[in-house]
Amino acid sequence: MAALPVYRWRLAPDGYATRRQLRALGLRPGGQAVAAQLERPRRRRGPLVAYLYRVDRAKPVRPMTAARWAALAKANAARRRCPACRRDAGYVIPSSLGTCTPCAFPDPDGSERSH
C-alpha cells in the first residue's frame, strides 16, 4: 500500500480539492479513494488533517428528484414535531432537550401556556 502524499496547509497543487470544495464546484468524489491530505500544524496537539480528492475523477452531484425532496421535507418535519405533545414546534427540537421548550420547562404555577 502506497502512502498518501502529504501537503502543508494551503500548499496543495492544482487538481486536488476537499469534499466541500468539490461540492462548491457541483461535484462529488464519486467513489474514488482519498488521493492526498493536507496537514495544518498546531501547538500542543496533533495536526489538523483535510483529505483531498482528484477533481478530474470527480463526478457531478446527483440532481434532487421529487421523491428526494419529499423525503427531505418529511425528515425535517419530523425534527420539528415534539414527541411529548405531538405539536409542530416551529423550530428544530434540540437533541439536548428532546422536547419542545414548553414541554421541557413547564410553568411552575401549573397554568397552561399555548404552544
Largest sheet: 4 strands, mixed
Secondary structure: number of strands: 6
Overall morphology: elongated
The class by helix and strand makeup works out as alpha+beta
Q: Which consecutive residue ranges, at least 5 long each, have pLDDT under 50?
A: none
Strand ordering within the main sheet: 1-4-5-2
Straight-line distance between termini: 59 Å
- Using only C-alpha atoms, the radius of gyration works out to 23 Å
Mean pLDDT: 91
Strand content: 15-25%
Question: Helical stretch count?
Answer: 3
Order of helices and strands: EEHEEEEHH
Helix content: 10-25%
Can you walk through the features of this model?
By secondary structure, the protein is of the alpha+beta class. Helix content is 22%, strand content 18%. The protein has 3 helices and 6 strands; from the N terminus they run ββαββββαα. The protein has helices spanning 19-24, 66-80, 101-104; strands spanning 6-8, 16-17, 27-28, 36-40, 48-54, 59-60. The strands form 2 sheets. It has a 4-stranded mixed β-sheet with strand order 1-4-5-2. It has a two-stranded antiparallel ribbon with strand order 3-6. β4 and β5 form a beta hairpin. It is elongated, with a radius of gyration of 23 Å. It starts with 5 loop residues before the first strand and ends in an 11-residue tail after the last helix.
